[in-house]
Amino acid sequence: MKLTAFRFALLLPLLALASCEKEEERYPAPQGIVGLQTATVEMGEERHNEIWYSLSDQTYDVTDGSLWDLGFSCQPGTHHIIINNGNDAWLHRGDTGTFAEILKVPSIGWKYDAPSGHKDSTALGTWCNYRFNSFYHRYILDRGMNFPAGQRYIKFMLDDSDADSYVLLWGRLDDFVPNRLVIKRDPSRNYVYFGFNKQQIVPAEPRQRDNWDVVFRKYKTRIPEPGTGKPYDYVVVGCMLNPNNTECAELNNVDFEKVDRSSVTATSFAHNDDVIGFDWKTYDLVSGKYIVNYRRVFVLKTHSGRWFKLRFVDYYNDLGVRGYPKMEFQEI
Q1: Distance (Å, rounded) from C-alpha 116 to C-alpha 282?
Q2: Nearest-CA neighbor of 49 among 325, 300, 302?
Q3: Residue 25, SS3?
Q4: CB half-sphere exposure, 259, CA atoms < 13 A
Q5: Least C-beta-crowded within 10 Å: which of 19, 140, 264, 319?
Q6: Three-class SS state of 143
């Protein structure tokens, strides 16, 4: 049936409305925070605090990042284990053998986890096959120079485990009989953390994996030495991504106010934990203070699909004490 001009004119507003509704479904208006937000993260001068922050609702939790030594992945099908780089920990992977053998502190062969968070770049490496049958490597953990001599070095092994748990064997370097602990995975978290001081699980990831976006913490990486440019390993303070489906793009020398979704492409985003990292600030040898780069902007896509732009504007509190990163962020 042919439409008369009058009927077609009546349909035009409805067609326009339907077109608008489709656009709104494809590009829904942001829900939650509106406008520019600011937040100061109180890590403290010693920077032991780890701040687990949700950009979506501006809530956070604080933990003591010095209390854990090993982190056990809870992701299904994975079995990687991390060490606490924030404590300046190092790991030596020895040969296979029995726990009872007395081990000595080696002079070479020490490693730490890559800050990228990639599963194939951990110091511990592959310790089992796909069925979680252990290769029985003997590891020595240097927990860091801040620990007393009698508590600094730990030897440990991983026993045969399964898809739901890890079996940890540990003790001093001259122990014949190991302590044994079954560490259960927690599907609501990225990692379960264990601390040798209290010899128990530490609640180091206080939020469920779907309830935070970034964590401020200390970690170790390789940086150029001021003055000489020679690379060396150093513990830095930075901002790390939630490994749970969170990705980030870095934009340099841009105006924060002008950044929107069109400022980045799909290939600009990376999943590395340290995309934001530590180098939004640099140390000035003349002033003896950290200088923040205001024109370095980060665009985050969170696990829930929301987009945020973020930059840092300060690293000191009102009293001039370092360890208080101040950020600005806005949903886009």
Answers
A1: 20
A2: 325
A3: helix
A4: 27
A5: 319
A6: coil
Alpha carbon 258 to its chain's center? 28
Among positive and negative, which fits the CA dihedral 63, 64, 65, 71? negative
Compute mean pLDDT per 10 residues along the chain, 332 residues long, and list them: 38 37 39 79 88 96 96 94 97 95 96 96 96 97 94 98 97 97 97 96 97 97 87 95 97 97 95 97 92 97 96 96 96 97
Instruction: Convert 19-46 to b/e letters by CB count within 10 Å (16 or more is b).
Output: eeeeeeeeeeeeeebeeeeebebebeee
pLDDT at 10: 34
Radius of gyration of the chain (CA): 24
Counts of helices then strands in the chain (DSSP H, E) = 2, 21
How many Å apart are CA 21 and CA 283, to the nearest integer? 51
Please name the residues in contact with 7: beta carbons below 8 A apart, sequence gap of 6 or more: none
Closest CA to 157 of 177, 131, 143: 177
Give dist(CA 276, CA 291) in Å, integer: 16
What's the pLDDT at 18?
38
Look up residue 270 and give its amino acid: A
Backbone torsions φ then ψ of 231, nearest 5 degrees: -70, 140
d(CA 203, CA 109) in angstroms, rounded, equals 31
Place of tokens 């829930």: 304
Place of tokens 């190991």: 178
pLDDT at site 225 = 83
What pLDDT was estimated at residue 21?
40
User: What letter does residue 281 receive in the DSSP assignment?
Assistant: E
What pLDDT was estimated at residue 33?
Answer: 54
Query: Which residue has tokens 């004490």?
Result: 321
What DSSP string describes 149-209? HHHHEEEEEEEEEETTEEEEEEE-TT-SS-EEEEEE--TTSSEEEEETTTTEEE--S-S-T
